[in-house]
Specification:
four-stranded antiparallel beta sheet
């Protein structure tokens, strides 16, 4: 063979070496990428997505304004904070918006005059008693109190009717 023909041919061992180095580089990048993804997943697992807790105490208004509410009326202003303010026969209460079945947010249906769960159809009276559906118990009440004429709801203290806690003086403001 002439020298020119030999110069055009490549050494088979050099091609083999290039393929190995390229494959090793691609493999290293894939391994590093999977390690990063695994690390991010582990970080997400170890540090759950929990923000700062909101203050459990919510100021809902003046006692005089809430006392002026018509009997059997409802304030939905605090639904985003997880509570409804209810003026019932006995007084003023603060009910949790969470359904006692699986915790879905209850909606007030004015035409039916009751709370309805959009998830599974449970229904509750305006006072919070369970009327229909799979909800196993009545709605929960929050601690409600008056301080210097201002009504405050403390969502960290819950009263359950089935435990006889609705009779507790902190579960209602008698009017």
């Amino acid at each position: 063979m002439a020298k020119e023909d030999q110069a055009c041919q490549t050494d088979p061992s050099s091609i083999h070496r290039r393929k190995i180095i390229t494959a090793a580089g691609v493999g290293s990048l894939a391994l590093a990428g999977s390690a990063v993804i695994t690390g991010l997943g582990l970080q997400r697992f170890l540090y759950p997505n929990v923000g700062e807790q909101n203050n459990p105490r919510v100021k809902v208004g003046d006692l005089s304004a809430l006392s002026a509410m018509l009997p059997k009326s409802l304030k939905e202003n605090f639904k985003k904070q997880g509570l409804y303010i209810i003026r019932c026969r006995q007084g003023i209460t603060a009910l949790s918006t969470a359904c006692t079945h699986l915790g879905c947010t209850l909606n007030w249906v004015e035409s039916e005059r009751k709370f309805k769960c959009p998830c599974h159809g449970s229904g509750f009276s305006q006072e919070g008693l369970n009327l229909e559906g799979p909800a196993p118990r009545p709605m929960e009440r929050f601690k409600i109190s008056v301080d210097e004429g201002r009504v405050t709801v403390d969502r960290s203290q819950v009263f359950r009717q089935e435990k006889g806690e609705w009779a507790h003086p902190d579960s209602i403001i008698r009017t």
